[in-house]
Design brief:
The chain is an alpha/beta fold and 612 residues long. The chain folds into 4 domains: 22-174 and 318-338, ABC transporter type 1, transmembrane domain (ABC transporter transmembrane region fold, Up-down Bundle); 176-289; 340-432 and 514-526 and 536-612, Rossmann fold (3-Layer(aba) Sandwich), CATH 3.40.50; 440-511, 3-Layer(aba) Sandwich (Rossmann fold). Helices cover 61% and strands 9% of the residues. The chain is built from 20 helices and 10 strands.
Length: 612
């Protein structure tokens, strides 16, 4: 038999080598997101430029008023003119704010769409290396950071930049010598305030971290409240939470110290710079080097420049946070799925679901030196039901996940109706292979939505037919909302047996050629097991099935039993023959029967033959 080498060990985790995005590349990627909406950006930019220019007018009006000593109608006319300009500025501010906010929200929607679409394409092994909280955090907080930059902070940076450049230019026009003094004093003071502000951000982050740790403990304890109460650990959990709250308080106390320092430093810097310029400018006025109106305008421009400089320096931290968030988002978007359809897939052939597993070897990236599967050869004839048994860790689940191609083996191949599954489009392959897990996953929608998940075009009639075959329809008919009943997150509103029947109905609706079944009756009572066994009889009819078996009842009904041990097929045959052979299968059955005999006689015997 020919055996081909597949992807190297851990290939499911390999990715194109690329470092962190540089500033220019990061801007290009964000610009690409906003490129279809450049019209709105330019409208906002023009409104920003004109509005910023108008903001530079009123110090000149103040200078003119002071120097000319305006009164009566002239002062009224000046005030009315300024009011008209500020009305225009307010309208332009609204235009700028709306357009930039729209762009920010558009960027959020587009990035979330791209990230989630890529996440759904990534193989399960990628998720095994990351926590769900981290992934959800990228979709929530990281994208929100980018929205803040595009929607408001970028606009603020541009506005303050215009004010800073325009203000400095007009300061030189008013008095070049005094401007030199201002540039020697104000920027260092502003940057000192920014440094203290950075320390405040660090302290604020520490407070948020402590609060997050305390909140995480609350979530964990409430989620496992029965365990907490069952082991009488309420006081311990309360004390742990109290410790977390106390740590958050201490972090907040230190933050208060730095905030007080910030406020006092900012106040001193502002008034000290104004006092210095007033002192120098006052002497200039006394010497006749500048007018009182010019000093007034100079003071106003100095205030505007100082505020703009401080705002720009503060925005730098926000831009840095956005840079990190952008890196993390594009890291996901740029990730190339290790499991994907070939460039030119082979059409799915007609067939009855013959499966050939040829010389398959596999090891996971976490332990590349240990073969989970070690040269497995197995053939499933069309319509045959094969039970897969063995000790926990023998490789049963790994072997079953090869069929829908949740990962590729290190060596060997899996054929479906004569075609290597790696040559098929994933949509075609997974459209004819269905899995019913031991713990089925349901979505927090209605019963009808969960059953119809097995087929995009499922009608209500087909959903009901599948439910009848799964022995579920009678149960649904008794519910007040029928098929519109909401099942709750992960199906918490249903019992274990009911969730299994929903999963079976979903698989029936998918009408697969090949069924992978992590046996659905191992944790159920006798009544539920009997109902599900009837549903499984319908589901297995005419389909090729690979069952990870736990119950002796399922094993005996299988056409063939395959025993795995340490990643190898060690026994194969019918129940009676394997029991007579006296090998591993017999030992597993006898061990499970001994365990079952020790159970309460009122419980259903769970004659099993090995874990998953």
């Amino acid at each position: 038999m020919e055996v081909t080498e597949a992807a190297p060990i851990g290939a499911e985790l390999t990715r194109p080598a690329r470092g962190r995005l540089g500033r220019f590349e990061r801007l290009v990627r964000l610009w690409d997101v906003l490129r279809p909406h450049l019209g709105r950006f330019w409208i906002a930019t023009v409104a920003l430029a004109i509005g910023g220019g108008i903001g530079l007018v009123y110090p000149q009006a103040a200078r003119y008023a002071v120097d000319q000593g305006l009164s009566g109608p002239h002062l009224d006319l000046l005030a009315a003119g300024l009011l008209a300009l500020f009305v225009v500025q307010a309208a332009l501010t609204w235009v700028r704010h709306y357009q930039m906010s729209w762009l920010g929200q558009r960027a959020v929607a587009e990035l979330r769409r791209r990230v989630f679409a890529r996440l759904l394409e990534l193989e399960p092994a990628w998720f095994h290396q990351r926590s769900s909280g981290e992934i959800v955090g990228r979709l929530a907080s990281d994208v929100t950071v980018v929205e803040g930059v595009v929607g408001s902070e970028l606009s603020m940076a541009l506005r303050n930049g215009i004010t800073l450049l325009g203000g400095v230019a007009l300061l030189f026009v008013e008095n070049a010598r005094l401007t030199g003094v201002m540039l020697l004093v104000v920027p260092p003071l502003a940057l000192s305030v920014v440094y203290i502000g950075r320390r405040i951000r660090q302290r604020s982050r520490a407070v948020q971290d402590r609060l997050a740790e305390a909140s995480a403990r609350v979530q964990e304890a409430i989620g496992a409240v029965e365990t907490v109460q069952g082991f009488v650990r309420e006081r311990d959990e309360a004390e742990r939470y109290a410790g977390g709250v106390e740590a958050a308080f201490e972090a907040a106390r230190r933050l208060a110290v730095w905030r007080g320092l910030f406020m006092s430093a900012a106040t001193f810097a502002g008034f000290a710079s104004i006092a210095l310029i007033l002192w120098v400018g006052g002497h200039a006025v006394a010497r006749g080097e500048m007018t009182s109106g010019s000093l007034t305008a100079f003071m106003l421009y100095t205030t505007m420049v100082a505020v703009s400089l401080g705002a720009l320096a503060g925005l730098w931290g926000s831009l840095q946070r956005a840079a990190g968030a952008t890196d993390r988002l594009f890291e996901i978007i740029d990730t190339v799925p290790a499991i994907q359809s070939p460039a030119s897939p082979t059409p799915l052939p007609a067939g009855g679901g013959e499966v050939r597993i040829e010389g398959v070897r596999h090891a996971y990236a976490a332990r590349p030196d240990v073969d989970v599967l070690d040269g497995v050869d197995l053939v499933l004839a069309p319509g045959e039901t094969v039970a897969l048994v063995g000790r926990s860790g023998a490789g049963k689940t790994t072997l079953a996940k090869l069929l829908p191609r949740f990962f590729d083996p290190r060596a060997g191949r899996v054929r479906l109706d004569g075609v290597d599954v790696r040559e098929l489009a994933l949509e075609d392959l997974r459209g004819v292979v269905a899995t019913v897990a031991q713990e089925p996953v349901l979505f927090s929608g209605t019963l009808e939505e969960n059953i119809a998940y097995g087929a995009r075009d499922a009608t209500r009639e087909r959903v009901e037919a599948a439910a009848r075959d799964a022995h579920l329809h009678e149960l649904v008919a008794k519910l007040p909302d029928g098929y519109a009943t909401r099942v709750g997150e992960r199906g918490v509103a249903l019992s274990g047996g009911q969730r299994q029947r929903v999963a079976i109905a979903r698989a029936l609706l998918a009408d697969p050629r090949v069924l992978v079944l992590d046996e659905a009756t191992s944790h159920l009572d006798a009544e539920s097991e009997a109902a599900i066994q009837k549903a499984l009889d319908v589901l297995l009819r005419g389909r090729t099935a690979l069952i990870i078996a736990h119950r002796l009842s399922t094993v005996r009904r299988a056409d063939r039993i395959v025993v795995l041990d340490e990643g190898r097929v060690v026994e194969e045959g019918r129940h009676e023959a394997l029991m007579a052979a006296g090998g591993l299968y017999r030992r597993l059955v006898e061990l499970q029967l001994l365990e079952d005999n020790g159970r309460d006689e009122n419980q259903a015997p769970g004659s099993g033959v090995g874990g998953t």
